[in-house]
Amino acid sequence: MKGTVLVTAVGSFSAAAVIDACKKEGYRVAGCDIYPAEWIAASLETDCFFRAPYATDAERYLGFLENVCAENQVDYLLPLTDVEIDVIDRWRGRARALGVTLCMSGAAAIGLCRDKQTLAQFLAPLGICPVIPGRSLSRVLAEAESAGFESLTYPLVLKPCRGRSSQGLRVVENVRQMRRACEDLTEEADRYLVQPRIPGSVVTVDVVRDAGHGRTVCLPRRELLRTFNGAGTSVYVFRDPLLESQCAALAEALDIRGCVNFEFIEKTETERYLLECNPRFSGGVAFSRMAGYDMVKNHLRCFAGGEIEPAGEIKNQYLVKRYTEFCTKIED
């Protein structure tokens, strides 16, 4: 046994693939989630399960993590959602004291990735790839006092700078809708970003970077069908040397450690705009594994002192996700 890994949010899209990869690598897997075990199929695959408080209640959540890690001799912590990463990012010192390795990028990289406006401002001068331009809603409101909303070019997208899973996102088609959105969001204007809406499909690129050994592996997929909150259920995995080299350069510029995912809006196959970097596994990370590269296994290697594998030959292919029913508990 290589040690114990605590996987958070085991009810999330990526959890089953993460737990399976950890166990195949010889780790004992502890899992947690805000819902009870019998509500979550992936809890059946863990060696032990704990019900967690909401990460938005940071004090309670971090206290919970401390107790679970100390009592179960946790060696590695793998957070699977943005809100958990935001909180755990502030827990680095205590994690070190407990001997727990946080399997996520450093604080500077997390700070850039979790703020879409800051990320765009950081990357735009580097010229690695086109980045969707954006301005804060507060600035747009200030300019509208003199120029009016009629001066804007529609359609526009309004989204939280530190949003997750499309929560809070609004598409604004005209002046009337913009006025209404601004009325609703006046108190949150500093926390919202305004961007042009670029038509196209979403391309997600799973990226794992081994900073210590100087290797980065990237695997793109075009998302053909997605859930409402942005998880791909039908995808086309493909190789693209230019896109992969851009993602490798982005990962180096941001000093990414381990696995993250970059999302692009693809207007044409030669015109793509960076949308965001999620500093965690993508919901569809299992697709990369099915295609021939295990991102989770290699993510663990980045933090356990190993060297990640080269990508090898991966063919273009269509992959789909289906849902299966499980019985998690039978009561007398």
Q: Could you give the topology of this structure?
A:
Layout lengths: L3 E4 L7 H10 L3 E6 L14 E4 L6 H14 L4 E3 L3 H7 L3 H7 L2 E2 L4 H7 L2 H8 L11 E2 H11 L8 E5 L9 E3 L2 H11 L6 E5 L4 E10 L4 E12 L5 E6 L3 H14 L3 E11 L2 E8 L6 H7 L3 H10 L12 E4 L12
Parallel strand pairs: 1-2, 1-4, 2-3, 4-5
Antiparallel strand pairs: 6-9, 7-8, 7-9, 10-11, 10-13, 11-12, 12-15, 13-14
Gist of the model:
The chain is of the alpha/beta class and 332 residues long. The chain is 32% helix and 26% strand. Strand 1, helix 1 (15-24) and strand 2 form a beta-alpha-beta unit.
Structural description of this entry:
The protein is α/β, with parallel strands linked by helices and 332 residues long. The chain has three domains: 100 residues, Rossmann fold (3-Layer(aba) Sandwich); 141 residues, ATP-grasp fold, B domain (D-amino Acid Aminotransferase, Chain A, domain 1, 2-Layer Sandwich), CATH 3.30.470; 62 residues, Dna Ligase, domain 1. 32% of the residues lie in helices and 26% in strands. It has eleven helices and 15 strands. The strands form three sheets. The protein has a six-stranded antiparallel beta sheet. Strands 3-2-1-4-5 form a five-stranded parallel beta sheet, sandwiched between helices. Strand 13 and strand 14 form a beta hairpin. The protein is globular. The two termini are 36 Å apart. The model has no long low-confidence stretch (mean pLDDT 94).
